[in-house]
Amino acid sequence: xxxxxxxxxxxxxxxxxxxxxxxxxxxxxxxxxxxxxxxxxxxxxxxxxxxxxxxxxxxxxxxxxxxxxxxx
Length: 72
Known about the structure:
By secondary structure, this protein is mostly helical.
């Protein structure tokens, strides 16, 4: 009977260790995805800013009724 409980306990401990490993793997995966997002935002930031600036300049230069200014 004691051997049976020992086997059950060892099985549960092994399962808990696998859960910990899975959590670490998911954490690394999330960190990698976050790093890719940061790099993409840093790389595309100036491109998006220029697109909005050019659009604002085009709208204000073609319409004399607009009194707003394009702020950087």
